[in-house]
Amino acid sequence: MANVKNWQLGRDMTYPYEARYPSRQFAFVFNINRCIACQSCTMACKSTWTFSKGQEHMWWANVETKPYGGYPTWWDVKILEKLEEANPGGQVWSGKPADNRFAPYGKFDGQTIFEAAGRALTPDSARVLGYLPTDEEWNAPNIYEDNPVGKKGVRNTLHETGESLPTHNTWFFYLARICNHCSYPACLAACPRRAIYKRPEDGIVLIDQAECRGYRKCVEACPYKKTMYRGNTRTSEKCIGCYPRVEGTDPESGGEPMETRCMAACIGQIRMQGLVKIAEDGTWAEDRYHPLYFLVHVAKVALPLYPQFGTQPNGYYIPPRWVPRPYLRQMFGPGVDRAIESYTSPSRELLAVLQLFRRSNRIIFRYDIEEGPKIYEGTLHGRKVEIYNDTIIAFGRNGRELFRTTVEEPVHVRPAVHANSI
Amino acid sequence: MPYDNPESSDPNELIGVELPGDESVTREMAAAFADEFAQLGWGRSAILALYRTPEYAGAHRSWQLLGDEEISRVVDESLKVWGRFRCIVTDAPEPPVEPRWEPLRFFR
Fold first, then answer.
1. Is residue A291 within 8 Å of A56, Cβ to Cβ?
2. pLDDT (tens digit, 9 = 90+) per residue, A27-55?
3. pTM of the model
4. Which of A13, A75, A136, A404 is the most exposed place for a label (fewest CB within 10 A)?
5. Residue A14's beta-bridge partner residues?
6. Ramachandran region of residue B87, left (φ > 0), alpha (ψ -120 to 50) or beta?
7. What is the DSSP letter of A414?
C-alpha cells in the first residue's frame, strides 16, 4: 500500500497504488437547494448511453430522495454501517474547518474504505471495504419515491394526482448523483485485471471493455455504487463523463469542451461542470477565477459527498439549507455549517458566480466580473440582501468569451389597447 | 418498476429517520424553493404551480403542510426581492468558421 495525500481528509492515507494526478480534473458542483427531482438528467443520460439490451437496470445518472430513496437501495447506509463495524465509534473528525487549502474541513481521524479493508476483510488480498448489491437493490433509480404508477395491472398510465407517491412528514431533499471520477478511485484500486484507468488529461475514470472480465470487484468496491455489471456482455460499465463532449470531439461541440448530457439537460439549473487545474501534490492548483475553484476553495459553499470514504470524490454539492445539520455533516463533512452560512448570506462575488450555472453548454474555464452599481438593499427571511448590477463574463478554454450575464429591472409597457384602462 | 408498497415487516425498508423536522424545517424548505426559482426568473404563477403539483413532492409536501395562503405569502416575499430583476444572458458571437474546401464529387 502506498501513502497518498487526501486533502479532503486533511491527512495522508493508504491506497493500493502510488498517487498519479491528471493535469486537469473533471469536477462538478450541484446546487441541491434547487433540485426538484424532475429526472431530466437521469433520462438524458439513459437515452444517450444506457438504452441498450442488458443495460435496463443501469442509471449512470440518477436523482434520489434522501434519506428515503437510493440507487442501489440504501447504498450509503450500508457502507457507513460497514465502516462503523470496522472501526466502532472511531469515524470522527477533529480540528475545525479552516482556510487551509490542504485541510479545509479539519482532519478525519477515522478509517477510509481502503484502510478499513485491512481490518475487516479476509483474505489479505482484498483491497477495499465494500459490498455487492443484490439484483433487487438495482431495481429503480429512486425506488418507491418517483413511481406514481397507475392502477395495478394497468400499463402506461399515471395517477394524475400523484397519490401513489409516498408521503414524508419530515424533511427530505433530492440528491443528484453521477460517478465522482474520484482522485483515488475505489473501482480502479479493486480491479484485479487493471482494466480501469484514469485519463491523464481530464481525470475521467474509464473501464477498458476489452480488458474487463466482469469479476465485479469494482461494483463491490465503489462506495457510491456507480459501477454496474452488464449481464449480456459480462463486463462492468460506468459513467464515462461524456468524454467526447468534454474533450471537444463531439460534432456538436465545435471543438470547444462541452458539458455532459446530464449537466446540459438540467432544467433547474443546479449544475456546473468544469476541468480544474491539479497541482503536483494532487490538490487543486490555485486558479482564483475558475468558478469551481471559487465555489469549493474561496466561498467554500460546495462540499464533497461523503469525503470520509477516502476516494477524494470530484463531485461537490451546495448542501440543502433546510436539512438538519447532523445529517448533512455525516453526508458532506464538517464544512456544512460554514457552507450554509455562506450560501444563505452570499457575498457579492458568490451571487455573481451563481449566475453562471447552466447559462451555456460550454465548459467555463475562467470568469471576470465588471462591477456595477448597487440596485437593491433590503432583507429577506431576516437576512440582509444587497444586489448589484454586476456583469459576469465567462470564458472558454482558449480565453474566448462564451457569454455574459447582467441584471435588469424589467420595464412593463402597457399595451395600447389598455392605455387608459386605469 | 415496483407496483406494490413496501411491506412494513421488511427489515430493509427505511420507515423513519432519527432527525425529525419541525414546522421551521418545512418553512425553510418552502422558502428555499421560492428563493431559488424566483432567482431563476420564474413568475408567481409558475412558482405556485410547482408547489401545487403533486409530482414535485418536496415543494408539494410543504404546500400541503403549510397551506396555499402561507405558501403564497412565502413566494411573494421571495419575489419582492428576486422578482424585481431579471438576468440577461448575452452569448458571445461564435468565431467565424473557416470554410472547408472539398474536391468535387460526381454522382451517378
1. no
2. 999 999 999 888 899 999 999 999 999 99
3. 0.91
4. A136
5. A3
6. beta
7. P
Q: Which residue of B has its CA nearest to A327?
A: B19
**What is this model's ipTM?**
0.84
Closest C-alpha to A162, from B12, B55, B90: B55
If phi over 0 gives left and psi between -120 and 50 gives alpha, with beta otherwise, what is residue A13? beta
The model's pLDDT over A132-185, given as tens digits with 9 standing for 90+, comes to: 999 888 877 776 676 556 666 777 766 666 656 677 777 889 999 999 999 999
Residue A161 grid coordinates = 394526482
Q: Which residues contact B71 (CB under 8 A, 6 or more apart)?
A: B30, B34, B48, B51, B62, B63
Residues of B in contact with A351 (CB under 8 A): none
**Interchain CB distance below 8 Å, B57 and A68:** no
Cell representation of residue B41? 426568473
A110 residue type, one letter:
G
Separation of alpha carbons A262 and A266, rounded Å: 6
Subunit contact B21:A152, Cβ cutoff 8 A: no
Tell me, what DSSP letter sits at residue A40? H
Contact of A129 with A87, CB cutoff 8 Å: no
pLDDT band at A1 (very low <50, low <70, confident <90, very high): confident
Whether the predicted pLDDT of A188 surpasses 90: yes
**Nearest to A317, CA basis, from A25, A24, A34, A101:** A34
